[in-house]
Amino acid sequence: MIKITHHKRYENIKKERKEKKREIEFDYTSNDYGIVIETNYQKAYVLKDNKINEVTLAKKFNYVINKIVFPGDKVIIDNNEIIGIIERTNILSRDKVDGTKLKAIGTNKIVATNIDLAVIVVAVNDPPVHPKFIDRYIILLENSNIPFIICFNKYDLVTEKEQKIIDFYGELGYEVVKTSTKTKEGLNDLKERLLNKTCILVGNSGVGKSSLTNYLLDDDVIRTNSVSDKSKRGCHTTTTSKYYLWQDNSGIIDTPGIRSLDLKKFKIEDIQDYFKEFRPYNNLCKYHNCLHYDEPENTCAIKQEVKKNISQERYESYCKIISEIKRK
Ligand SMILES: Nc1nc2c(ncn2[C@@H]2O[C@H](COP(=O)(O)OP(=O)(O)OP(=O)(O)O)[C@@H](O)[C@H]2O)c(=O)[nH]1
Ligand SMILES: [Mg+2]
Ligand SMILES: [Zn+2]
Fold first, then answer.
1. What pLDDT score does 224 carry?
2. Predicted model pTM
3. Confidence of residue 98 (pLDDT cuts 50, 70, 90)
4. Each residue's pLDDT tens digit, 4-24
5. Pairing state of beta strands 198-203 and 242-247?
6. DSSP 8-state symbol, 123
7. 227: confidence class by pLDDT, cuts 50, 70, 90
8. Which of 3.40.50.2000, 3.40.50.300, 3.40.50.10540, 3.10.180.10 is the CATH number of 111-254?
9. Which of 64-68, 136-140, 181-185, 226-230 is predicted least confidently?
């Protein structure tokens, strides 16, 4: 009996200690911070006073460092230890984000924080354009309150088919840039939009994120993912997100390419809000909770607009997401 009580008490003390250890200060207002450029499970690299500092997490925080700080984080360091994080303006996660998550710790899905502008990088060809992937990124970024533009890179490989897709996203009202790191077309235009901001490049593998970063750095510091003809697999694919300061006040975060984006954490009825061309019609459906999915066409204003004011492709993209959330 006694033994058990003692053991229980010991377990409780252990638990309390652990909870105490978890608290990390998020509301520092100091200007004396450094910017996290890269992390791994042991260390973070922090840019401060023009120098890169190799730091660890203060011992009292019982966490693996790359689950608590991320590229873009502004951190307070003392004796080469991180002791606090300046409150984040936003976080980019590969999951749904909610406001309280700005203090997120212990997650694997966060890519970076404090982003002024995200660039969804799409290759015009090689790999082929997947518009559904663009749509998913738009949802994630809007949900995180991160402004974004779409960069159609490898524009040297454009044909009529891809030009139509580029024009389509422009007509929907998204900001589009066309670039080629081969011919240098559009690169100045892109540079101007990225100037004096912290930006992040996101997208599939092999679309040219690292090549664009190299252009901004005016150097080939990052090895790019040249695809070997034999295996068709990339050789120098980026494996961790990393922040680069390419001019005073201008930072760029290069990220590893991803294959797919999972939106299962979103509420099914919220997805339609992210398809902006649906907005004039979704109040016109017969049922107020219409998902424009398996309701009959004669009751659904969205379905009636498909191939008129709503494109078949975007509607299919919407349905694919709805079906995935339904299946979860
Ligand atoms: N034709 C053409 N090829 C390009 C262009 N930009 C990049 N590439 C090539 O595309 C391949 C992939 O480029 P990366 O910059 O490594 O692509 P990434 O998006 O960083 O790839 P991950 O790191 O795997 O996510 C390389 O062989 C580049 O030389 C372009 O504008 N036109
Ligand atoms: Mg890369
Ligand atoms: Zn409907």
1. 77
2. 0.91
3. confident
4. 566 677 677 666 655 555 567
5. unpaired
6. E
7. low
8. 3.40.50.300
9. 226-230
Residues within 6 Å of ligand 1 by CB = 153-154, 156-157, 180-182, 205-211, 224-227, 234, 237-238, 256-257
Pocket test for ligand 1, best of 137, 224, 235, 255 (most atoms within 8 A of CB): 224
Tell me which residue has its CA closest to atom 27 in ligand 1: 226
> Which has the closest alpha carbon to 176: 129, 244, 242?
129
Under 8 Å CB-to-CB from 263, ≥6 apart: which residues? 96, 136, 139, 140, 271, 321, 324, 325
The contacts of residue 161 (CB under 8 Å, 6+ apart) are none
Residue 90's pLDDT band, with cuts at 50, 70 and 90, is: very high
Take residue 256 and report the two structure tokens written for it.
């590893």
Question: Which CATH entry fits the domain spanning 24-87: 3.40.640.10, 2.30.30.140, 3.40.50.300, 3.40.50.720?
Answer: 2.30.30.140
Alpha-carbon Rg for the chain, nearest whole angstrom, is: 23
* Whole-angstrom distance, CA of residue 110 vs CA of residue 108: 6
Q: Tokens at residue 231, please? A: 């295996």
